[in-house]
Amino acid sequence: MLKIEGLTAAVDGKPILKGIDLAVPAGEVHAVMGPNGSGKSTLAYVLAGREGYEVTGGSATWDGLDLLALEPEERAAAGLFLAFQYPVELPGVGNATFLRTALNAIRRARGEPELDAMQFLRLARERLRALSMPEEMLKRSVNVGFSGGEKKRNEILQMALLRPRLAVLDETDSGLDIDALRIVADGVNAMRGPDFTALVITHYQRLLDHIVPDRVHVLVGGRIVRSGGPELARELEREGYAALQAQAA
Ligand code: ADP
Ligand code: MG
Ligand code: MG
């Protein structure tokens, strides 16, 4: 299970996370919702170990492993995957090369044999089909010239190839039209099972119509101010965050 206790973090010396307590039992999918600027991406980055996000207190463990003590690549080797809210463009780096390098690094860490170019291509084609992505996406530079929706689908393609045990999806729904939303949600739902745990971060409820979470947590001002079942997402959609923001302030 993912266990976060009293987690505080700062960016440029400014406190952003102000004591997060959150437990996601193995095999469950939890949603983190919240208004803009509440610290959702900061939480994702802290879990992934992004530079510049300073942990000032508390803990985050995954299967008893102290996540915060590990280098980002060690976290990935332990099965953690982060889908970025703003996927980075890598001009000159082919998407296929990038994906195969990432996949083989994970496979080495798991003690599995690496895939050669042909084996990788077979697997990638299968995953692309499942996500209704054209094969041409593999030939292009990573995310360069991709539309918002294509970038998000590319994040899900990475996830489908790497098959993480713990996934953090940061606003993967933003920029998606309704068909792409369904495809992305299907991609996540296909991973669900006892060996897949996820934190799905979203501002809106609509993604959660397709990925029905086991629990919903509301992050306001760097703290979880409410938790509940899937119905909490619909309540927020109706009533907005204003009341919870006023309460938190
Ligand atoms: P959310 O994802 O919920 O919209 P963020 O985690 O992106 O929220 O941001 C939380 C707060 O931290 C905001 O007030 C934002 O301005 C601030 N913040 C985030 N990243 C940085 C940064 N790199 N430098 C300075 N402030 C930042
Ligand atoms: Mg935001
Ligand atoms: Mg964000």
UniProtKB/TrEMBL annotation:
Any Pfam family: ABC_tran
Highest taxon, organism lineage: Bacteria
GO-annotated molecular function: ATP binding; ATP hydrolysis activity
Similarity comment text for this entry: Belongs to the ABC transporter superfamily. Ycf16 family.
Domain (ABC transporter) ranges: 2-246
Stretches assigned to coiled coil: none
Family annotation (PROSITE patterns): ABC_TRANSPORTER_1, ABC_TRANSPORTER_2
Keywords: ATP-binding, Nucleotide-binding
Protein name stated in the entry: ABC transporter ATP-binding protein
InterPro entries (alphabetical): AAA+_ATPase, ABC_transporter-like_ATP-bd, ABC_transporter-like_CS, FeS-cluster_ATPase_SufC, P-loop_NTPase
Entry keyword annotation includes ATP-binding: yes
